[in-house]
Amino acid sequence: MKHPIDERSYKDPVCGMVVSRLTAIAEAEFQSKTYYFCAPECRDAFLADPQQYLHLHRQHGLKAKLPMS
Predict the structure, then answer these.
(1) If we measure between CA atoms, which residue out of 13, 19, 10, 12 comes closest to residue 55?
(2) Which of 7, 20, 30, 35 is the most exposed place for a label (fewest CB within 10 A)?
(3) By the 8 A CB rule, do 36 and 27 touch?
(4) In DSSP terms, which residues pair with 35 in a beta bridge?
(5) Rounded CA gap, 23 and 18, in Å?
(6) Which residues pair with 34 in a beta bridge?
């Protein structure tokens, strides 16, 4: 039996990469909404200051900078 594949895509709010539920490496809940991430580092940066990334995400053309490990 085949299960339906969720084809929806989501933009990682930290780096802007497009992921799906199937390709996302990490996810987090914030204000009753699930966010999907391409890497644990993006999720961790988001959880440290979600409002910063949600604000940046709304501003066209701005890219968030991830801290270098």
Answers:
(1) 13
(2) 7
(3) yes
(4) 28
(5) 9
(6) 29
Is 0.85 topped by the overall pTM?
Answer: no
Q: Which two tokens stand for residue 46?
A: 């988001």
| Res 60 pLDDT > 60 | no
The percent of residues in the chain predicted with pLDDT above 70, rounded, is: 70
41: its two tokens: 């580092």
Q: What is the 3-state secondary structure (H, E, C) of 1-21?
A: CCCCCCCCEEECCCCCCEEEC
Residue 21, domain member (yes or no): yes
Any domain includes 3:
no
Q: What is the pLDDT of residue 61?
A: 47
